[in-house]
Amino acid sequence: MPSEERDDPDPVAANRRLWDARTPIHLRSSFYDVEGFLSGRSSLHDLEVEEVGEVDGRSLLHLQCHFGMDTLSWARRGARVTGADFSPVAIKEARRLSAELGIAARFVESDIFRLPRVLEETFDVVFTSYGALCWLPDIARWAEVAAGFVRPGGFLYVVEMHPAAMTLSDEPGIRQLRIGYPYWTGGEPLRFEEEGTYADYDAPIKLPEYVWNHGLGEIVTALIDAGLVLEFLHEHDCTIYQQLPFMKRGPDGWWRLPSTMPALPLLFSLRARRVG
Length: 276
Ligand SMILES: C[S@@+](CC[C@H](N)C(=O)[O-])C[C@H]1O[C@@H](n2cnc3c(N)ncnc32)[C@H](O)[C@@H]1O
Known about the structure:
Blueprint: H1 11-28, H2 34-38, H3 46-52, E1 59-63, H4 69-76, E2 80-85, H5 88-101, E3 106-109, H6 115-118, E4 123-129, H7 139-148, E5 150-161, E6 190-195, E7 206-211, H8 216-225, E8 229-236, E9 238-239, E10 248-249, E11 255-256, E12 267-273
Parallel strand pairs: 1-2, 1-4, 2-3, 4-5
Antiparallel strand pairs: 5-12, 6-7, 8-12, 9-11, 10-11
Helix pairs in contact: 1-5, 7-8
The structure holds S-adenosylmethionine.
C-alpha cells in the first residue's frame, strides 16, 4: 500500500539506504539461495539464458547487479563480466562472492546515471533484469545510459516486471485482481514503507522506498530514441515471485495467476541492438 508520508528530500538516497539494508537479508534468504549458488547453481532463468544466447568470450555489463549472483552466473557461462550497482554493501558482497568462487569479475559502485563517468568502454551485451527499472526516476535518461554502453553490433537485453503487473493492488488480504497503482507515475514516485522484502516477507526491516512506474511505450520509445533497433518484445504470463497472494507456482518454478482469472502479462523481455 502506498504511504502518504513524504519525509525524504532525496528519494534516490533513501532507496540506496533501503538496498544497503536489504542486501544482508537477501544473502541469507532461500529466495536467493546463495548456498546453492556457491555449490554451482546458476541464478539465471532459462528465459534470459535462451533470449540472450551465447555469451562465451563476450563482454557483458550487468546494470543494477545487486550482489552479483546473475553477473557471476554469466561469467560461469564464459562472459567477461562487469556488474554495477549503487549500493556499496551489495558491491562489497559481490566482490566477496567473486573472490570466494575464484570467478573473475569487475564490480563498480555507482549510481546508474553517473556510470558513464566511471566506465568508458562499450560491451557486447548490456543486461538488466527483474525489478531494476522501477527505481529509476528518468527512463529516457536510463535508455541513453544503457544504449551508450552497447558497442556497435552488440545489444541491450531487458527482462522486467511488466508495467501492467505493476498496477495491480497488493494490499493485505487481497483476493482478486484490482488496479491499485498508476500505470505511469511521471516524475512523482510512489512511496511505500512495508515490513520485510520480496525475498523474505518476515524480515525485520521497515524502511521507506520510492518507485516510479514506466509504461511499456515509454520504455521502448526511449530505447529507439537512444539509437537502438528493437529485435523483439515478448510479454509473459509468469513472474519470478509471489507478487499476489493468489498466484500459484508451477512445476517450472514460475509464478502465475490462477486460470480462473483474466490473463495478464506479468513480465516482458526485449532485445535491442546497436546497428552498424
Ligand atoms: C531488484 S534488484 C535487481 C535485481 C536483480 N535482478 C537480482 O535479483 O539480483 C534492484 C537493484 O537496483 C539497484 N539500484 C536501484 N537504484 C539504482 C540506481 N539509481 N543506480 C544503480 N543501482 C540502483 C539496487 O541497489 C538493487 O541492487
